[in-house]
Amino acid sequence: MTSPDALRVAYLERVAVSDEAGAIAVAADALDAGVDPEVVLLDVVAAAQREVGERWAAGEWTVVQEHVATHISERVVAAVARHAPAPPPTGSDTVAVACLDGEWHGLPARLLAEVLTRHGWRVEFLGASVPAAQLATHVHRAGPDVVAISSSLASRLPAARRMVEACRATGTPVLAGGPAFGEDGRWARAVGADGWAPDARAAAAMLAADPEGPWFTEEPADGTPVDRAAREEQAVLHARRAELVRHAAAAVRPAVDGPGDGVPDELADDLGHLVDFLAAAVFVDDPSLFDGFVRWVGSVAIPTGLRLDEVGPVLDALAAALADSPRTAALLRGAHGGLPTPVA
Amino acid sequence: MDGRHGVPTRVADVRTPADDTPSTAPAPAPPTTVGPGLIDGLDEGVVVCDRAGVVRAANAAARALLPDLRVGEVVDVARCEVLARAVRGEGQGTGSFEAVVDHPEGERHVRGRRGPVLGPTPPPPPEPGEGDSTWFLRDVTGEHARTDTLLAAQERAAFLAEAGRALHGVLHLDRTARRVVALAVPRLATGAVLVMRHDDQVTWAATELGGGRPRLGHTAASELTRVPRVAAALADEGGGVDVDPWLAEELATLTGLDAPGSGAPLRACPVPVTGVVDALVVLAGPRAAGDDATDPEEDLLSSYVARAGAALAAAALHEEQAHLGAVLQESLAAPRLPETEGVVWGAAYRPARETLRVGGDFYEVVGPRGPEGRSAFLLGDVCGKGIEAAVLSGRVRQSWHALRLLEDRPARLLPLLNTALLDAVATRDEGPRFATMVLGDARPQEDGTVALRLATGGHPPPLVLRADGSVETVPVAGMLVGGLREARFGEAEVLLGPGDTCLLYSDGVVEARGAGDFFGEERLATTLPACAGAPPAVVCEHLEQTVVEWLDGHDHDDVALLAIQAPA
Prior knowledge:
The structure holds two protein chains of two kinds.
Chain A: H1 4-16, H2 20-32, H3 37-57, H4 63-83, E1 94-99, H5 107-118, E2 122-127, H6 132-142, E3 146-150, H7 157-168, E4 174-177, H8 186-190, E5 195-197, H9 200-209, H10 228-239, H11 241-252, H12 265-284, H13 287-299, H14 308-321, H15 326-337
Helix pairs in contact in A: 1-2, 1-3, 2-4, 3-4, 3-5, 4-5, 5-9, 6-7, 10-12, 11-12, 11-14, 12-13, 12-15, 13-15, 14-15
Chain B: H1 21-24, E1 45-49, E2 55-58, H2 60-65, H3 81-87, E3 96-101, E4 108-115, E5 133-139, H4 141-168, H5 173-184, E6 191-198, E7 201-208, E8 215-220, H6 228-235, H7 245-255, E9 266-270, E10 278-284, H8 296-332, E11 344-350, E12 361-369, E13 374-382, H9 386-406, H10 410-426, E14 435-444, E15 450-457, E16 463-465, E17 471-473, E18 490-496, E19 501-505, H11 507-510, H12 520-527, H13 536-551, E20 559-565
Antiparallel strand pairs in B: 1-2, 1-5, 3-4, 4-5, 6-7, 6-10, 7-8, 9-10, 11-20, 12-13, 13-14, 14-15, 15-18, 16-17, 16-19, 19-20
Helix pairs in contact in B: 4-5, 4-8, 5-8, 9-10
């Protein structure tokens, strides 16, 4: 069995039953059968992990099941590194790989680190959810040639900005990666990164072609650099997050606004994410970021989470509470217009 | 300068303008009387011309500025083509002009404007004729020189400011070295090499105009014996070093690259002594060939080199400190967990000062020893935060590692640890240092269960997450460790069935305070059931994530979690 698709299916079966040893065996057998380790990492492990994410979004898996799957995949990545060790680095160039602060999905970055190691780089893997200050300390101490930051959540973009600034103060180029930066990487420009790669293979190819960057060739067309007004409104949203979540929850589920903290965790999580994405959209001044999230949150089937028919009233409630922030209010009104009609 | 008006002049060296006016213009009758007039008193040069461009009058200032200007001759003779054209009404702006004119004392910048027609009194003004014009001339050479000087000074200041900003943005020594040479090109030189000695290592960085990213290399300081001139220049205490033809060869020896500037003269500029690094900047190309000590470019060069020296010294000091910190961090950082037969471990650690990566919380796990195959574990929290707390936690952990070899019963081990901590504090001028902890051991049994023995002092009680999702608190408590010699501690035994997990945690978990309330024991207990059956690493990771999300960016205490599980 060497076809990536068949391997992925077999792998996912093992992961679904929390069979760590079985999952490692699928990967090890593939390597023994001559499958390229990069294919095992990206087309089996990473591809299966994407399906795990889809199952969670579809409400088939709980968040803990997803964590268990991710844990198994981490172990498999380590096992692949042991089973088919990467050749020693070919040069002296070093790349530091880090997840954005607040980004707990460390696996894509871990996979990137493995892939870059196999492409001859010296790799320093800083892990999931790296605070900007920790990254700055690392860059000053270790002096990597390139910093690669990874995130799947666009709501972490304000953190990305802080991390990029920490690196740029030292003249270290930053390559951004992952869906957090938009389908075409436009938000990578907005936060000041020097380039964007859609996935680990593309990142390896870009770094091989040009180890120094900047990889963005032309000046930003539609991704505007973050300005002061955007930062201020984003800061307001961040500071008022808890209050806004309660306010929005009360607007759609008046019954739960009794004494005590009666908001279901799932609803509070969804509303918290909604405020985070709103803040990120204000931050990069791009309504499509927020519209994308609003469409997505309506499509996710999480019991007691935010329902599609509640999204509109939530947007109205937030717009009323945020009348002092003109950009934010405009974004909320715009997103309201683009809402799909709830299915009766 | 003292040309007298009215005196006929040679016209042989007149630079003839494009048209032929000068030679063919009819010479008007010269004014009858010539003497100092009102206009002679002006600082501004005044020239009165008629329509044909013949100078009717010119004051002393005008004659000083344009020594060839003669009354009665066409203005072209004055070698000021712009004035000649302006008088004839050519050129775009007819009201004013600015030009550079030859002058015995060097080029002068002349600014002219057209003014109202004037006549000298006395002598009586020439009858203003139709089309007459009067020109006021001013020497603005000094103004221009000042402007140029100012602009040049501004440019130098801007360069230095930008260089300073760029140099001090970096604290990594190699990157600073690269920047030192990168910033010098092209403003100061066409190529630059930095040689720097720091401890027993020599670092060099080299760049070339259009050569891309600077190259960098390291070599042992002993290699300097092969390059005596570079070594001598490095030892030099400031001051310039003469251009030395052997320098290029020595640099090539040191770096293995061709000398910079492809044959251009090289100039060695020792970096002023900083007490931390010895450094030498070698610049190539004409910009570096200044020999006038008062030349502002020289000033610029020495200012740049001084800034480079300060940045290199700061980076070198930071590197030493960072290394010290990294070694310390490494020794105090959370340990790797062992792989043990019959027991699975998981842990999570998030120090309060996240950049420090260490804190006052700690955990340790040691794999099975002895015939019963007991694995020992410890999780605790010393008072305080940051590096002081981390160092104290290191002392506690070392004591535990040593005492554990002598006494493996947790209920006996903890009092020993208490005494050790009190004794250690007594030998130093320190206030009492308390710690709270849970320690114990885990013994996997034939039937797949794991037997735990626990002892605790001053620490939140452990939780047990059963495989079915129910959560129990282990009822055990005790007094602070390191407080009193006769302190009393609690002990307990727990049996973990397959899939059961025992969770030890520090108070940073329950005392995490977000925008609203504390995280609290209750929330911890309601978060756990969802993790039933998950590997212990996932349990800890999930809890850490939940706590950090609860914090929502607020400051927090150290957070440590250790989970012990009997495999399902």
